[in-house]
Design a protein that fits this description.
Blueprint: H1 2-13, E1 17-19, H2 27-49, H3 57-66, H4 71-98, H5 105-128, H6 132-143, H7 152-160, H8 167-198, E2 212-214, H9 218-223, H10 226-239, H11 269-277, H12 281-293, H13 310-330, H14 338-357, H15 359-367
Antiparallel strand pairs: 1-2
């Protein structure tokens, strides 16, 4: 049994046939694996001192920062580690669009599933601070589930463990926040198995074991470049620990007074802008959900055009630009012209996705 395990491990990280054309863009995936393990380790340490109680939660975070030996370092590294994870998650995702990685259907589907669970995990971690912004963000986001037909209000009441967000809700989120990363770790293992069974998409789209090199030592050396990124991350976190946060996160939650302007973390802003762009609550929630779920539909299309195709690059670049603009609009006040621009760019967001889905048919139509 032990021999079989080491053989399996050897096939994953030692003798795995790898394309010669993989560049540093493929470091995004390995960096994500490192950050995930880092987040689990720092989060486990924080869980030892955190109190999942509505009265003590905010104070316990302050206790970790000021009283626990090196607690401040674990807290700021965990806090900024979430942003680091999403930076590379989006880079990894955009790289997949550039190289039409959705042709590897199991890899793509498992990756989108990981994306959804990581977003859920990050949201629950955001709530655990029990500050003004995170408390009211939890009220807004959990209330969206009430649009589910028939069972919606009951699901919201079940999550809240009552008729409002309370200490029981906080415990529910804490338990899930602790357990979900282990499930994500299992999903990542399946993601790697699917990836290594087909091979990565590369600039030459070579899937056979011919004209390839072993994963070790070449790609171990390439992944070692991640150490420079870690060095930059530690320096950035120590010099600017809370630059990615909101001032309202330093104020304890007050159920009787909401912030003037509720803004989620930066990695949720594009979806938040889409939600706010639609006045109808049901359609807004549906658009919010489809902003990620729509990428599951990519597995039904096999766009075997060249991965260096200029048209594909053009639309992916436009999609990235639109996503960035939506993220900026998500933190703007709910007033003209930001509301109008949110509607325009939300439409463009889904339009470009539609074009990317049918780009192969479009190419045949244009160039035939």
């Amino acid at each position: 049994m032990l021999k079989g395990f080491f053989g399996f491990l050897n096939s994953l990280v030692i003798n795995l046939p790898s394309s010669k054309t993989l560049t540093l863009y493929w470091n995004f995936g390995s960096m994500l694996g490192m950050v995930l393990v880092f987040q689990i380790l720092t989060g486990t340490f924080l869980a030892m001192y955190y109190s999942a109680d509505s009265i003590l939660a905010f104070s316990s975070v302050q206790y970790i920062m000021y009283e626990v030996n090196f607690g401040w370092s674990f807290r700021i590294f965990h806090f900024n580690g979430a942003s680091l994870f999403f930076v590379f998650l989006y880079l990894h995702f955009f790289k997949g669009l550039f190289f039409s990685s959705y042709r590897l259907k199991n890899v793509w589907a498992s990756g989108i599933t990981i994306f959804l669970f990581v977003m859920m995990e990050a949201f629950m971690g955001y709530v655990l601070v029990w500050a003004q912004m995170s408390f009211w963000a939890s009220v807004v986001i959990t209330s969206l589930l009430s649009v589910i037909p028939v069972w919606g209000p009951s699901i919201v009441t079940w999550i809240w463990s009552g008729f409002s967000v309370s200490g029981a809700t906080l415990k529910f989120f804490f338990v899930l926040h602790f357990l979900v990363p282990w499930f994500v770790l299992v999903l990542v293992l399946f993601h790697l198995i699917f990836l290594h069974s087909t091979g990565s998409t590369s600039t030459v789209y070579c899937h056979g074991d011919y004209d390839k090199i072993c994963f070790f030592p070449e790609y171990w050396g390439k992944d070692a470049y991640n150490l420079f990124l870690w060095l930059f991350f530690f320096i950035f976190s120590l010099c600017y620990p809370f630059i990615m946060g909101d001032p309202e996160m330093f104020i304890e939650a007050d159920p009787m007074m909401s912030p003037v302007h509720i803004v989620p973390e930066w990695y949720f802003l594009f979806a938040y802008a889409i939600l706010r762009a639609i006045p109808n609550k049901i359609l807004g929630v549906l658009a919010l959900l489809m902003s990620i779920v729509v990428f599951y539909f990519f597995i039904f299309f096999s766009n075997y055009h060249s991965v260096l195709d200029i048209l594909n690059k053009f639309f992916v670049f436009n999609f990235i630009l639109i996503s960035i603009i939506l993220s900026w609009l998500g933190q703007c006040m709910v007033e003209y012209p930001f509301t109008f621009l949110s509607i325009v760019f939300s439409i463009l967001y889904f339009f470009v996705i539609f074009i990317l889905l049918f780009i192969y048919i479009l190419e045949i139509f244009i160039f035939s």
